[in-house]
Every structure is written in C-alpha cells, then in structure tokens.
Write a structure and sequence with these properties.
The complex is a heterodimer of chains A (329) and B (505). Chain A is an all-alpha fold and 329 residues long. Chain A has a domain at 37-250 and 266-271. Helix content of chain A is 74%, strand content 2%. Chain A has helices at 2-15, 17-32, 39-64, 72-86, 100-125, 129-148, 158-165, 173-191, 193-203, 205-210, 215-241, 252-262, 274-293, 298-320; strands at 153-154, 167-168, 171-172, 243-244. In chain A, strand 2 and strand 3 (171-172) form a beta hairpin. In chain B, strands 6-7-8-3-9-10 form a six-stranded mixed sheet, with helices on both faces. A six-stranded mixed sheet of chain B has the order 16-19-20-13-21-22, with helices on both faces. Chain B has a four-stranded antiparallel sheet with strand order 2-1-4-5, covered by helices on one side. Chain B is globular. Chain B starts with 9 loop residues before the first strand and ends in a 9-residue tail after the last helix. The chains are: A mainly alpha (329), B alpha/beta (505). The A-B interface holds A 191-194, 196-197, 199-200, 203-204, 206-208, 210-213, 270-271, 323-328 and B 58, 77-79, 82, 94-99, 103, 107-110, 112, 115-118, 270-273, 302, 306-309, 311, 326.
C-alpha cells in the first residue's frame, strides 16, 4: 500500500514536474535570503502574480484546445482604461460608489466580446488562432490609443484604488480572487463536460468531430473565457495602480504563455492542467520576487527567466522522448 | 446459422462515389442480414474502406441508396449514423491520449448532471460494464496513453457497444491484436450476432473470414463482384474473385542471371518494430517484401536509409560492413529510397518537375555561387527520356501530373543520384492500372541494368509480378523467403498471416 501511494506521488510529480521546480526555488530563496521566508512576502508574491495568473487560467483552456490568444495584453489595457474612465463619467456622478458597477460591466463585457470575436473568426474562417489573435493584439492596442488619446486615466474615486489594496481577513483581496478563480477553472476543466471536451478537441480533433462535439462553438467559449480573464486582470491591475495607461499589459501575452508552457500545457494541445499552470505562475512569481530581494538587476532577471524556460522545455522533451526506435529528423 | 428476418438489417444499392479523377465506388450493392457476419473482401484500394465510410456518414455517396431495416436513410455525419444504429470501428485508432478510457468510450455523449458536471459514477459504471463484456483487464479510469495498441483497439470496440447497434462494421480489427485478444474479439462478434446485430467484417486474413463469417462479398477496383455463402466456397474461388485473373501467368519469368551481392543484412533489429531480419540482394535482382500493414517492411527500408538507428545486427554493402548514420550517408553510399507516400514524403508538389528531380544534388549543380540551370535541365531531359515521363515541360508543377508520372519523377530523382541499391516502397499506390504496368516494367528494366532493387508492396499481384524473390513478413519477423519458382499465392497468404512453413502442411 505504501509503495502504491509512493507511486501515485511519483507519478503526480512526473506529470507536474513544475511543482518540483517550485519547491526547489522556494527552498533556495528561503535559505539564501532572510527576507524571502515571510508571510507578508508570500502574500506579496500572490498579489504580484495574480494579474498574469488570472489570464493564464483562461489561456490554459485555449491552449489545451490547440489554439493560442496573443491579444490578452491589449485587452488588459482596454479593460483597465474602460474601468477607470467610465466610473468618472458625469452620468454616474450621483451613483456614489455604485458608479464602479457600469464601468466593471463594460470592461468585462468588452473583454468577453473580443474573445468571442477572436473565437468566431477562428471557427468560421479556419485561419490559425496565432494569426487571428496577432491581428487582434495589434488592432486592440490601436483601439486603446484611439480611445485614451494617448493619455493615462487616473481614478478619482479612492474606494476603487483602495479595493486593490484591501484584505479579506489577513489575506489581500487580489490573492483571494486569484485563488478562487484558480479553483473554479480547475473544477471547470477537470469535472465538467465542457472541460473534458477541451482535451478531446485539442487531443484528436477528428475524433471529437466524429463524436459529435461541436468544435467551433466549443472553441468560442474558451476564447470568451480567456477574454473575460484578461479583462478581469485589467480591472484588478488598474485598481492596484489607481490608474490606467495605454501601454498597460505590454508583453503580458508572452509572460502568460511562458507560465502556461512551464506548467506542462502542450502548444499542440490535448494536454495540460490548471494545477500545472498554477505551478508555472508561482515559479515565475517566486523567481522574480526572489531575485528582486537578492537585488539581481532587472535585465539579468529576464536573461535568467528566458534560460530557465528553454531549459525546462528541453528537459521535458528528453523525458518524453521515444526510445531508440524513433524516426530521426 | 441464425434465423434470418425477411428485411435485411442493411442494404446498399448502386452506391457510386467519385473523388476528383477517381471513381472509387462504381455501383456497389451489399446486403447484410440481421444476425449474420458478412465478410467484405478485396485488395487494397478495391474500395472497402470507402464503402464503409459512405455507410458511416463520413462520405456522402454521389448515387445510390442506403436502406436500413427497410427504410431509406441518409447519413449526414458519423453521429447521425451512430444514432441510427450504424457503428464503424476504425482501422486506425481515433482516441484522445490524454483522456481516460471511459471518457473516450463516451466521447461526445458524456453522462452529466444538470449543471454540466460529468457524472463520473454513472460513466465509470457503464464503461466498466462494457469492458467486462469485452473481458478487458483494465478499468474505466485508466488513461488511454498507458494502454498498449491492442488494448486501445479494445477501447475503440467498446465505443460500438454504447448504443443499440443494428449494424457494426469492423475494419481490419485484428491487425494489432494478439491471438488471445483475437479470441475475445471473436466472442464479442459472435455475441453481437446472437443478439441479431448485422456485422460487416473486413479482413485480409482468409482463416479469420472462413472461421467467422456466414457470407462474404467481394469488391474489385471499386465495383461489386458478387456474394457467396462462406460454407459453399473456398479460398481459391474467393481469391479469383478478388484478383480477377489467374495468378500463374502474372509471375515474372524474364529473370536475368543475378550478379554479386550488393546488400546483405544480418540479424537486423530495431526495438519492437522488427527483429532478427536477415536477407541479401544481388545486382540485377528484384527482391519483394510482402506483408500486412504494420509488419515492419517500411521500417526496414527506413533503417537501411539511415532514418532509424538499428538496435542490433549488421548491414553489409558490397561485402563491407557499414554503419549508416543518416540519409545523407545512405545516399553517398549508393542507397536510395523511393518512399511510401509520394505526395508527402517524395515530392514538393508546388515545385517544377526539374527542381524536384535535382533536389538531392542541387548543392553540386552550381556555377560559382549560382545554381546552374543548364546542368539541371540536362539531368531532367536525360531521365525524362529514359523513364518516359510525360509532362508538357520541365516548368510544370509536379502536383499537376498524373500519379504514374509523379512516381517516375521520384524514381528519376533517385536514379540521378547513381544508386547501387534502390528501395521502392509501395511503388504503385494510388496509380491507375495502365500506369501500374509501366512502373512494373520500369522496375524490371532497372534490375536488368544492374541495380539491386527492393520492392515493398501490399499488393500480391505486384509482388509476384516484379520480384525474383519474395520475402514474407509478419509482425516484425521474416517468416519465409520464396524463390521465383516456389512461390504460390496460398503459401504467401499463409506466411504473411504468421503461419510458418513447418506448421502449414
């Protein structure tokens, strides 16, 4: 029985090697830096990673489908601008703190709608999601500049910026939000019909079609989820900053994809999990935080993160390589 | 056998299916009664799989009617067909690796609660029940990627049992099963038959067909050749129906006296793909490799061409032991491979005839830093004349040529590399009958010019026609090697079914 349990644990680790890596760097930074192992710092890491983490949850679904969404960074900026701008419209001036509600609805609605648009184009035209969302990334970013006239917006309502700093009990609200979202998306992916079909569509599309799964609408739903998550990340980010700038969310798509891939999701689709993605997000968060505490210059942090990404994927390739029988390439 | 009801479970009438340039099915009729096993036979390319895809709604027929239990039906898609009780069990696996057995069995129709959550207990209970019926020793929770190919095949079969099937089509179900698993499968088929299901059974293996089926129908070149009651016919008659002519005249007779041994292989193995393979090929000789799909023939060719690393054994070229590190090395040692799939592996369809032909040696055809046009055209002209390639000009994109001419371009490409050993994998797949003969003649001519030629083929007439010797393979092993005089169709069929000469009387 003990060996069985051990096998299960070992198997879990081989399927989620990123968690081995998370433990490794956690121990490393705990031993090498006196400020790292501290409850406040852990909360800090969760808050810092919550933005990328929220998007990564949605991106995991899209990538298991075998698609990708490059427009998330631009959606973050658009949602943040809408959130900060609309709540200061004169029309809602008498609403008190409720003026945030129409802004929130607009921001999340636009994010979801842009996701749906990406998905419908991919479905109806059959153009690769990479190209479609690359176009959306450029186009939406352009819209942000048109909308903001290249200006930053500042939140006049301090309740809004306080929300970003608030806590639920001892834990920061944003960390709580991220954890709840993680659990919800995990349940969606592992327990629901939609979630299981996500694997089927990405793993063997022809089999999914033959089994009567409506692949197009299915993919649109996942694009809507990632759009919603990106907009939510834009809202939380603007609340943390109390402002929105048109350049917000630049390169976020790359950080998100890095986290998801580190978490074991295959670019070709069909495999991946929220547990892995959560590990990937934490790995990036801990590395950035730890190196920051050790006062590693920011540019070296990028070099190190890039090297780690490639090293982890090479390792993964070696572990899953077929034996000597494989066809050479 | 069983009592036959008056209306057959399934009747196909005058099914015609054309693809651009090919009439794949030409007015095919088929009648399957409830409670019978109806075997469908034909050579590769005779149209069996196409017919079944029409039946399962994956293709729409151009003409003809599908009548299910006396009612004319239209199969809009595979789901539709399944809902109406027609289930096709694919030859190739179509499973999702990352999901569990249960999820694959009920793919697209997972039982769920009101809120869209998967009802795991129902799903696992139902799947385990089906798996028990199939005597599978794995359970519903097993991940498909953890199963062997044979067990994955059982999962595929389990899918058919989720609905109340009227007709179940098995397309070469035993290709990857072990003997013990076959027994289980046959029990399942007999059980289905006893419950009044009509079963279509496609197989190349005569022994299975004669022990299992009640009636059999034969297709040849896309047209229907007749139906027989299995008990009233024999293998000879069935083979004649399949091939359409007596085989003895088809054998190759004009052999040249073979020269020195060009290639010798001793005890070559590559993991599970093939084991302990030994043979030799002489100059001026054509050696045919015959076997079922998956017998390891193509893998041997890929190993000789340096695409796979052998795990044991030696390769000798002109008596000298060599280690072939990759295709480049193979080419420089005089080995060329005309691959199995012309369009995917052999040609760049959008490029011109000339550019395709000179592709492997383009690095040498230069004047200064530039590619020499004249040298390229000279090579093309030479092989166009030699192989009788019919193309309006060298500028023509290869994709626009007929299959036979495309294949000649590939052969020409490798002849231009001046090989000693030429390996041709499925040389006439997808090529019409007239051009087939030409390719066969070409292969014979090449041998008589002193090349050592290996032909890999799944078509018996082809192997018998072009080869001086035939090597029969079964699941990675050489079963028997035949000289031109001793090969008979019967012994060849037995050998590729794994029956060794000492057991077959």
């Amino acid at each position: 029985m003990a060996t069985l349990k051990q096998n299960a644990a070992l198997r879990w680790l081989t399927e989620n090697p990123i968690w081995g890596f998370v433990v490794l760097i956690f121990v490393f930074f705990s031993l090498s830096n006196e400020f790292f192992f501290d409850m406040n710092n852990f909360q800090n890491i969760l808050v810092q990673t919550s933005t990328i983490g929220l998007i990564a949850l949605g991106m995991t679904l899209v990538m298991i489908n075998g698609n990708i969404d490059l427009s998330v960074g631009a959606v973050v900026a658009l949602a943040a601008s809408l959130m900060v701008d609309i709540q200061s419209w004169d029309a809602f001036s008498g609403w008190g703190n409720w003026q945030m509600l129409p802004a929130l609805i607009a921001a999340l609605g636009v994010g979801t709608a842009l996701g749906a648009l990406n998905g419908i184009i991919v479905w109806k035209t059959g153009v690769d999601a990479f190209i479609v969302t690359l176009g959306a990334m450029l186009g939406v970013r352009g819209l942000v500049f048109v909308y903001t006239k290249e200006q930053s917006f500042f939140a006049m309502n301090f309740t809004f910026s306080d929300l970003g700093m608030s806590t639920v009990g001892p834990v920061p609200s944003l960390a709580v939000l991220f954890l709840i979202a993680t659990v919800l998306v995990h349940i969606l992916l592992s327990r629901t019909v939609h979630g299981r079909n996500t694997y089927a569509v990405g793993g063997n599309r022809e089999a999914a079609v033959n089994a009567g799964i409506r692949v197009g609408p299915h993919m649109v739903v996942n694009f809507m989820i990632v759009g919603f998550m990106a907009a939510l990340a834009g809202v939380t980010l603007s609340s943390q900053m109390g402002a929105a700038t048109p350049n917000l969310g630049r390169d976020y798509e790359l950080w998100v994809i890095t986290a998801v891939v580190l978490g074991g999701t295959k670019l070709t689709g069909g495999a991946g999990s929220i547990i892995g993605t959560f590990g990937g997000v934490l790995a990036i968060g801990i590395l950035r935080n730890g190196m920051n505490l050790m006062q590693v210059p920011a540019f070296y942090v990028l070099v190190i993160l890039g090297s780690i990404l490639i090293a982890v994927l090479i390792l993964d390739k070696q572990l899953t390589r077929k034996g000597v029988e494989a066809l050479k390439t | 056998m069983t009592e036959h009801s008056e209306t057959p479970a399934l009747r196909l009438e005058g099914i015609v299916k054309t693809f651009p340039g090919v009439r794949a099915l030409d007015g095919v009729d088929l009648e399957v009664r409830a409670g019978e096993v109806h075997a469908l036979l034909g050579e590769n390319g005779a149209g069996k799989s196409t017919l079944m895809k029409v039946l399962a709604g994956m293709h729409q027929p151009n003409e003809g009617r599908i009548i299910l239990e006396g009612r004319e039906v239209r199969m809009a898609n595979p789901m539709d067909a399944k809902a109406q009780g027609v289930v096709l069990i694919h030859q190739e696996l179509s499973l999702c690796d990352g999901l569990s057995v249960a999820e694959n069995v009920y793919l697209g129709e997972l039982p769920h609660t009101k809120w869209g959550f998967v009802d795991w207990s129902t799903l696992h209970a139902r799947t385990d029940e089906i798996l028990k019926k199939l005597n599978c020793n794995f359970d519903a929770r097993t991940r498909v990627s953890d199963l062997s190919i044979a067990r994955q095949q059982m999962v595929e079969i389990a899918r058919a049992l989720t609905v109340d099937a009227k007709v179940v089509v098995f397309d070469e179900p035993t290709a990857s099963l072990t003997d013990a698993e076959k027994v289980v499968l046959f029990d399942v088929i007999k059980d289905l038959r006893a419950r009044g299901v009509g079963i279509v059974y496609i197989s190349h293996r005569m022994d299975e067909i004669f022990s299992l089926s009640d009636r059999l129908s034969v297709l040849r070149d896309g047209s229907y050749r007749g139906t027989k009651v299995t008990a009233e016919t024999d293998e000879d008659e069935v083979t004649r129906m399949m091939i359409g002519r007596s085989l003895t005249h088809e054998k190759n007779t004009d052999t040249v006296e073979p020269g020195a041994v060009a290639l010798e292989v001793r005890g070559l193995s590559c993991g599970k793909l093939f084991r302990d393979v030994s043979f030799e090929v002489r100059r001026g000789e054509v050696v045919g490799f015959y076997g079922l799909v998956g017998a390891g023939r193509t893998e041997i060719a890929e190993t000789l061409f340096g695409l796979r690393t052998p795990t044991a054994g030696t390769i000798l070229l002109d008596g000298e032991e060599v280690r072939i590190s990759g295709p480049l090395d193979a080419i420089s040692r005089g080995i060329s491979l005309v691959p199995e799939s012309r369009k995917e592996q052999g040609l760049v369809l959008g490029m011109s005839c000339r550019d395709n032909m000179t592709l492997p040696q383009i690095g040498d055809l230069t004047t200064g830093p530039f590619v020499s046009n004249g040298a390229e055209i000279a090579i093309y002209d030479q092989y166009r004349d030699r192989l009788d390639i019919r193309s309006p000009s060298w500028r023509q994109a290869v994709g626009n040529l007929s299959g036979g001419n495309q294949q000649k371009i590939v052969i020409g490409k490798w002849l231009a590399m001046k090989p000693q050993v030429l390996i041709v994998d499925e040389p006439t797949r997808g090529i019409d009958v007239g051009a087939k003969g030409e390719i066969h003649k070409l292969i014979r001519t090449l041998a008589s010019q002193g090349y050592a030629v290996i032909v890999i083929s799944s078509e018996m007439p082809e192997v018998l026609h072009v080869s001086d010797r035939v090597i029969a393979m079964y699941s990675g092993e050489v079963i028997r090697s035949f000289g031109v005089g001793e090969v008979t169709e019967d012994s060849l069929v037995q050998a590729i079914s794994g029956i060794r000469p000492d057991r077959a009387a």
